[in-house]
Design goal:
about 250 residues, mainly alpha, two-stranded antiparallel sheet, 8 helices
Length: about 250
């Protein structure tokens, strides 16, 4: 269940001076507010199908450019087609933060930034663009490896990351070295990423519509309990989560 926690408290007796024995002259202490605190949950629709479909469509466009299906003259048009992916995945990231899923939010927000960087560099035809994007993609390999280490229970996210890692590596090395075969390989891997992301999006959408898992997603551990567990599981340790606790 995707939820957005906010905390509010009503304390009729808050601020009363409990007396001189409470801890020093001039100091005021509030009573224990836990019994008077209410946490309101706001369920939302899962934004992840939108995020995965966006990855799939943008990967097809960039993959076709790398494979040579679209020529060098089409780079600016491809950049313009990819640019909306930035806005869509940014929305997905914001909603995922509101749904208390920091892993999905971080991943989708970073994807959004990558599409924006790609669209700006390719669309503007900036000098040294392929080399700069090559370094950028190699940095993404490091980011993706760290994310993959913590996303395995969320198997759909993990599979998209695992498919993306070699694509980012091939794109990065191809951009730096100028090797055509690496660019072609990256294009083929981009189509693979699109297939994996499209499957994940379709499976999540079917699950949401029918209220049960239809196509296997392979959730394990906390991700499995979050979907299959009861409400008590969803609310466990809620008071310690961001948006409820005092600091991040």
């Amino acid at each position: 269940m995707d939820t957005d926690p906010t905390a509010g408290a009503s304390a009729p007796g808050a601020g009363r001076d409990p007396g001189p024995d409470a801890g020093g002259a001039g100091r005021r202490f509030e009573p224990d507010l836990r019994a008077m605190t209410r946490i309101t949950l706001h369920p939302i629709a899962s934004p992840m199908p939108l995020g995965f479909f966006t990855v799939a469509i943008a990967s097809v466009m960039t993959g076709c450019l790398q494979l040579g299906v679209l020529g060098p003259a089409d780079r600016q048009a491809v950049a313009l087609c990819v640019l909306p992916a930035f806005a869509l995945q940014l929305v997905v990231s914001v909603l995922a933060f509101g749904a208390r899923d920091v892993i999905a939010a971080t991943l989708m927000g970073t994807f959004a930034g990558s599409w924006l960087a790609y669209a700006l560099v390719m669309g503007s035809g900036a000098p040294g663009g392929p080399r700069v994007l090559g370094v950028f993609n190699l940095a993404f390999v490091c980011f993706g490896a760290l994310m993959a280490a913590v996303t395995r229970p969320k198997r759909a996210l993990w599979l998209v990351l695992v498919a993306s890692l070699p694509r980012w590596a091939a794109t990065g090395l191809g951009g730096i070295t100028g090797a055509e075969w690496l660019t072609r390989t990256a294009g083929g891997l981009g189509i693979l990423v699109a297939l994996v992301a499209g499957y994940a999006a379709f499976a999540l959408m079917l699950e949401d519509v029918r209220g049960e898992e239809v196509l296997p997603l392979g959730r394990t551990g906390p991700a499995h309990h979050a979907v299959e567990g009861d409400l008590a599981v969803q609310l466990r340790n809620l008071e310690r989560q961001a948006g409820v606790r005092r600091t991040l």
